[in-house]
UniProtKB/TrEMBL annotation, chain A:
SUPFAM superfamilies: MetI-like. Residues 99-295 form the ABC transmembrane type-1 domain. Belongs to the binding-protein-dependent transport system permease family. GO terms for cellular component: plasma membrane. It comes from the Bacteria. This is Nickel transport system permease protein. The chain crosses the membrane at residues 9-29, 105-126, 138-157, 177-195, 233-257, 277-298. It comes from Paenibacillus phyllosphaerae. It is a multi-pass membrane protein. GO terms for biological process: transmembrane transport. Keywords: Cell membrane, Membrane, Transmembrane, Transmembrane helix, Transport. It is found in: Cell membrane.
UniProtKB/TrEMBL annotation, chain B:
One of its GO terms (cellular component) is plasma membrane. It is a peripheral membrane protein. It is found in: Cell membrane. CDD domains: ABC_NikE_OppD_transporters. Gene3D superfamilies: P-loop containing nucleotide triphosphate hydrolases (3.40.50.300). Residues 4-251 form the ABC transporter domain. Keywords: ATP-binding, Cell membrane, Membrane, Nucleotide-binding, Transport. Pfam families: ABC_tran. Its main location: membrane. This is Nickel transport system ATP-binding protein. Signal peptide: none annotated. It comes from Paenibacillus phyllosphaerae.
Amino acid sequence: MGSYISRRIALSIPLLAVISFLTFLLVNLSPLDPAEVVLQAQGVPMITDELLTQTKQELGLDRPFLIRYWHWALSCLQLDFGHSYVTGQPVWSQLGPAFLHTFKLTIVSAACMIFFSIVLGVICAWREGKLLDRSVRGISFFLTAIPSYWLGAMLVWLVAVKLDWLPTSGMESYRSYILPVMVLTISYASIYFRFVRSAMISNLNADYVLYARACGLPEKKVTVHLLRNSLQVAISVFCMAIPVLLGSTVVVENIFAWPGLGSLTVNAILSRDFPMIQAYVLVLAAAFVVFNALADVLQAAMNPKLRKDL
Amino acid sequence: MHLLEVQHLHVTDRHTGSVLLRDSSFHVKQGSCLAIVGESGSGKSVTCKSIMRLHKAWIRQTGEIWFKGEELSALPERQMRKKRGKQLAMILQHGMRAFDPTCVIGVQIGETLKEHYGWSRAEIEANMSLAMMSVRLNNPVELMNKYPHQLSGGMLQRVMIALAFVLEPDLIIADEPTTALDTIAQFEVVEQLIALRERMNGAMILVSHDLGIVRRLADDIIVMKDGEIVERGSANVIFSAAQHAYTQRLVEANRALNGHFERLKGGGLGLVEH
């Protein structure tokens, strides 16, 4: 198992290198001149050619592309993503705390989402085709169709404004988590519980379940075997849900004024703050790579057959 | 009284409304082997699952199943569960799929033995080792620490037989125990099934469409087609003087296959003659 983990990590490193290069390339392909963006952000009234050349030199933009990439990649390894074009501050001083806030929200939401997905998936699989299964699936279909901004707004109106039970926005205490976590859990659990359900159902028909029952094992023990096998499929889906959540909290963050990645990035995109966008894309891509590796390792831990490959 | 007496067993699928088994009655004598023969989908496996009461929720079975003077269909699930494995043991077709792929096979074996005997780890290991040695599985402790995919289908089949050795059931239900195996593994499994019967002096239901194996093991035969028993009788009678056209065809096809096989064994000449 140890060698599997080290091999899997080794595989992630070239992947990260390729991702960082593509990120840098894509942002550089933008037709906008970064020097112009900087000067506009500084509020310079007259942008002359002289000024542009000077700014380019200051930013090091006159150097060849590959050299710029090399310097950028090296400093990224030390969490130095350059300075924001707009505020002039180091990118990480803004991105770091925002990432942490979003990460907290994501982890709590993911935990809730995974819990409800497993519980609902298992219940529906046991009651396959019965009224309970059909109604849970029907309601979840309805909930998936509701856009999260509408759901968020309705919850704010009902729970925070009308009933005045919870804060409408911000992140002062654990109570601030409840509403945004609810919105994210509802949106995602109603999709992801289906993975658990279908995995459970296909495993219910497996021969090992029949044999375990034919051996007289109690249903409790049979269920443990069933869960072990079914969650194996679900685990990779769940692991990948975490970076997906990280990247898609924009709407929820805006509704609940959550000082996270979402709002920061939207602002960065609107003001064409290239270093910030680059850093955001890189951090998120790295999250995908890390959680993908984690999913593989967890799956291999549960399934001995997978350990041999790779 | 017979060990197992099945009366008017009728099985329907409530989802599709189709009848899987139509008014089926048969019995298994103490210490004898009943073979259920027929093509796939004829209701052989359905019959086995009905006796074990292991159907899905939407499969409905009616009729009476008398086992050692008890009506199995009327038993509460808890008591039925205690009978599974201990008194009614099943051996499945695909050894490869019969064990949880995420655990070493010792886990499932241990859970079963603990359930029925309440044994400690050491007791399980000692008893299981003996049984596994007797079905010619050497290094039993090592084998029990292997995952199903690391063993062959024939070995896993013999593990199931070894488990049956330890559980000493009154009735063994072997659902196509050799179908998924190659010839050599088939031979070994059949030998062990015969040994199992001799040692337990128990009864057996053998489901198979391999008449060669049926001929070696069975005392009585029932032939099924489309969920109905079309012919029944002692093995000798069925093999020599089958009444039903379907059975005649089965026996004939088997004879032709065997003849072909014998000719092949006799050397290359058989092929030239064709």
